[in-house]
Write a structure and sequence with these properties.
The protein has helices at 2-21, 351-354, 380-392, 409-420, and strands at 27-33, 57-62, 66-68, 76-78, 93-96, 99-102, 108-112, 131-135, 155-159, 193-195, 202-203, 217-219, 224-228, 241-243, 248-251, 265-267, 272-275, 289-291, 296-300, 312-314, 319-322, 333-335, 340-341. The protein is built from four helices and 23 strands. The strands form five sheets. Strands 7-8-9-10-12-14-16-18-20-22 form a ten-stranded parallel sheet. Strands 11-13-15-17-19-21-23 form a seven-stranded parallel sheet, with no helix packed on it. Strands 1-2 form a two-stranded antiparallel sheet. By secondary structure, it is of the alpha/beta class. The N and C termini lie far apart (146 Å). Helix 3 runs antiparallel to helix 4 (409-420).
Length: 421
Amino acid sequence: MKTIRNMVYFVLLMFSIVWGQDCDVDMYWSDCGTPYECLPTCSNPYYEPDTCIEICETGCFCNPDYVFGDESYSFCVPIENCIESSLCNEETEVELWGDCYNIEMTTELSYSYVYLGEIPSIIGELINLNYIHISDCGLSGQIPPEIGNLENLVSLQIYDNNLDLPDSLVIDIDSNLLGEIPVEIGNLINLQQLDLRNNELTGILSTELTNLNNLSSLLLSGNQLSGQIPSGIGFLQELVSIDIGNNNFVGQIPESLFDLTNLNFLSLSNNNLHGNIDSNINNLSLVYFLDLSSNNFSGEIPTAINDLDLYFLKLNDNQFSGSIPNEFCNIDFLYLSDNNLCLPYPECLIEEDIGLQDTSECIDCSETNGDVNNDYNLDILDIVSTINCILLDICNECSDINDDGTTDVIDIVSLVNFILG
């Protein structure tokens, strides 16, 4: 009897060895493995049962980072090749960041102070969305072009507040969207608000953005956008607010921007813009906040700017020259430092308003208006000097008798009146 039992054990041993040799390359043999029904499969790759029958399963098992392909437990596949089943109804819903959204019924997406990662391209299937607000959610990757499918969208806000949040959150929630603003955003003809502040967006502003005829707010500050401000920006007649500061824009302010007569907030600060400020700036009669600081603007401050009812004006860190208008006394918040503005300064302004100025190129005009040759007398020599400067095109502010920004025959007439009167 003992001999028979030993023979049975020997046969079982040999059978197990032979069977073990038949395991696929993605599998290994075990005489005492976890029961198959307790193991994950590709349909449920992260399955961890609360309880499991404590028996030994003999057979082939999956190598690390592999799971059984199905419930036959006959083959293994890499876990990354498994498609995790969605909890959403694939016919009527889409899954975004672990939540299910009804395709027909969803009109709003709102997330703040949670980590989301990338924006899935499937967001473009929520065709009835009219409001997207995602702030401080650690976004990464690019804005998917499928967002251009959301033609009912009224507000698109994907921005970062740059807030220092408590350490208790234990997550990095600063958004860092990369890449260019997709041209497909130009399809969103109902869009009224576009807010992509404080990301890492690059590239130029495409001309397709000028298709957004209903846009009232364009907020793109704090990115790495470059190129010129689109010349067609004047087509966006509904614009009320523009903030494209803290980017890398170059060139001059397009003339069409001064056609935006509904504008009340304009910030172009911290770019590489240059040139003179167009006298048509007085077309922006509703603007109360104007920030042109930290660029390379030059020339005199146009007198037309005095027509604006400004509450806040920043012109600091440019190359503006000439004088400071007395009308600036009426502006509540004024920043003029680090320019080339010349004396005398309006008595109403304090040192903090004016700041440091490079006056090395300033011309010292006589205190007597009309004393062009600065000899302390008003006579025919001043008339001759004025005529010569006009003919030779070498006039400066000292010969601009009527302070209209140019020296011409009207100044000569004024000078004659001074001498005769």
